[in-house]
Structure formats: structure tokens, C-alpha cells
DNA sequence: ACGCTATTTATACACTTGCATAACAACGCC
DNA sequence: GGCGTTGTTATGCAAGTGTATAAATAGCGT
């Protein structure tokens, strides 16, 4: 008569490890089924735990989603900044590396895009998200603006402040736009085609000399 | 003892009219609460009908959403193409007008963006939406490619096919990227600033002569 | 003026969702 | 090795979801 189902075995994990696992599971779910498919049960199944556990690490689902969003934003900016760290290279090369880093995997990634779209769509109604986006955007643009100023200085161009700002806005737009297309339809482009197009465009915008003229 | 609630009065509408009303109501709901807020009941309430009626015009909710998406895609491309209709102007001016049309109201609009974001997030996993996006994108890009070819021809530049394609991809990216920023944070930019930046960038990309040189 | 029929309402159903709670067991500590 | 802490499971619930179905009525053809 003992038809009581055997209780599931489990292991205790470290707090940080579990949180990270849950976030990763959320990313997987969003990638596969979209934001709407990222239910607590689906996430838990993916993470190999039961649904209730989520509430033990996050006060509610919303916070898990925000933590997930913060994770990918951090991951992306980290990738981009890594490209800036090449201190020995010329400003022009660093700009090119920066552009390329933003338009190749792992930044070009359908999973990330799916999550980004889900969140950014909410930014219109959710002031907190709108503010988060703004901070990230302006930070990114400032970085870009500094880089542009360096490049122009190295090329002996007058770096008008307004002009530099405009350039940064434009480059940021190019990166955003091509990033989207790359995430949505990478099969339409060659492996490094988007990066190449972006670099050409940026160099034309900054009126850099067209070809290899590093050492006159 | 007659506590039977009085049945709601209603009017019969023409089929096409009702379908359009339901689509419009869906647009409102998505714009206001996001895709997740566009439930059949919310949509029906918005349209001033009861939920069951939706199923009388659409076999299921999914089809209503697809019809809605098709509607906004059509509306956006229609707006953009209208700017191309200035037949008497020079290719260069028409390109500038096209760019400007895509980066000023009513194309720059938080509501439209909200809709776009909601749907595009699904396009990663929903094949039907992905296909819809792709035809829209490629159609837009083809239009752009033809325009670029005209401009280059008028400027006596050799119009390499691959180069023209690359230019169109780049311009499309610029438009997308700046469109997003404009929709999300129009207060960060002057009224026509984004359009101006985009036009400058495009002209630099196509290596057009910098200033007013229309009549040498 | 009166039915006919298709549009519209009303109600119900099966299912999913996020969240709350209680029982349980893995693991560190003495 | 027993024990307490707490990470983890199991179960339940109320609200909301899309959909199915039947009843009602608006408005047209006659």
C-alpha cells in the first residue's frame, strides 16, 4: 500500500552557484521559447530544480528577470571594453577592434537579442527599465566619444566637441542597427561582413584615409 | 425575483470594420501594456466587445497577433516609401528626404517602438514572425539599394554591386539604430538632430561632396 | 411586420501562471 | 553519530489564460 512517491534526491549548492544556474536557465528558456516561455516552472526544470526554489533565491520572478538582464548587459559591455584594452595599438585600430567586438559573436547572439527585445519593449512603460537603458546607453556613448576624440587627434583633425558627439551618436546607431540585423538574420551576412561594413562606414564618417596609411 | 442581469446591448458591424477594430485594439493594448498585456479580454474590452467575439473573426489569438504585426509593418514601410515619391528631386535629395522621414515623427514614436519591440522579440523563435520581418527588411533594403545606386550614378561614381549592397546594409543599420534611440529617448536629442546626423553619415559614407554643390 | 441567420453575448472549462506554505532531507557542527 | 539549520521538494491555491459552446438578439430580405 505504500504508493507514496519517493521524494526526489537533491544536492545543496552554494548560493552564488545556484543563482547563476537559475540565471543561465532563464537565458536558455528565453532563447528557446521567448520571454513569455520563461515561466518559473520552465526555468526550474531547465536548472534541474523545482519551481519553489526560485523563490528562495529571488523574491519574485521579476527580480530574476532583471538579474538576468543585468547579467547580459554586463557581459556585453565587458566584451566591448575588452577590445578597448589594447593599449599598445593605435586609436584607429582600437576603434576598429571595438566595432568588431560589438558585431561578432558572442555579442551577436539570438539569445541575447531575444532577452534584450523583451526588456526594451517594456522600457516604454516601465520607468525603472527606461532609466537603466538610459544609463547604459549614455555610458556606452561616452566611451565611444572618448575613443572618437582620440582617433581624430591622432589623425590631426580638429575635434570639435559637437562634432565628436554627433560622431559618437552615429557610430552608436550603426552598431545598434547592425547588431540587431546580425542577431535576427545572421544567415543573411557573411561571417565578418557586418563588422567590415561597420568599420568602413565609421572610417568614412571620420574621413580617415581610405587604406593602410598607418606609416606615411 | 428577476435578478437575471440584463443582456448587454450591441450593434452589428461590417466584417472588415470589426476586424480592423480588433486589430487596432490589439495595437493599443500592446503599446500600453506590452505584448503580455494583450490578452483576449483586454483586447475585447478595448474594442468595446466581449472576448468571445475575437474567435468569431480570428481562428485563434495567434492569428490576430500576426494580422496586427502585418498591419504595423505595412504602415511603417508605407510611411517610408512616401518620402521616395518626390520624383522631380535629385537622387541625393531624395535619399536625404528618405533618411529624414525615417528619423522624425511620426515614424519616431514611442508607441510604434513598443509594438515593434514586442513583436520582434518573438521573431527569434516564431518562424511566422521571423519570415514577416525578413520580407519587410529585405524589401526596405532593396529600396535603399536602388536609391544608393541612383545617387552614385548621379555622382559619376562606379557603382560596384557588392559595394552598393554594403552601403544599403550600412544605411539601413544607421536608420534602425538611430530610430531606436530616438524612440526610446527623444529628449536626449534636438528635434531634427538625429536626421541631421544620419544624413551627414550617409553622405560621408557615399563620399559625396561635403556641402551644397548641387550646381557647379 | 415578421421570421432567418449570422453576429454577438454569456457562461463554462481545462489549463497555466506566480506565489505561499509545510514537510522533508542534505550537510556542517559539536 | 545525533542534531539543528536551511536549502530543497511537494502540494495547494487563487487568479488569469485561451478556447469551446449555447443562448440571445440585431438587422436584413421579404
Automatic annotation (TrEMBL), chains A, B:
Residues 39-58 bind DNA. Residues 16-76 form the HTH tetR-type domain. One of its GO terms (molecular function) is transcription cis-regulatory region binding. The lineage of its organism: Bacteria, Pseudomonadati, Pseudomonadota, Alphaproteobacteria, Hyphomicrobiales. PANTHER family: HTH-TYPE TRANSCRIPTIONAL REGULATOR BETI (PTHR30055:SF234), HTH-TYPE TRANSCRIPTIONAL REGULATOR RUTR (PTHR30055). It comes from the Bacteria. InterPro entries: BetI_C (IPR039538), DNA-bd_HTH_TetR-type_CS (IPR023772), Homeodomain-like_sf (IPR009057), HTH-type_TetR-like_transc_reg (IPR050109), HTH_TetR (IPR001647), Tet_transcr_reg_TetR-rel_C_sf (IPR036271). It comes from Manganibacter manganicus. Keywords: DNA-binding, Repressor, Transcription, Transcription regulation. This is TetR family transcriptional regulator.
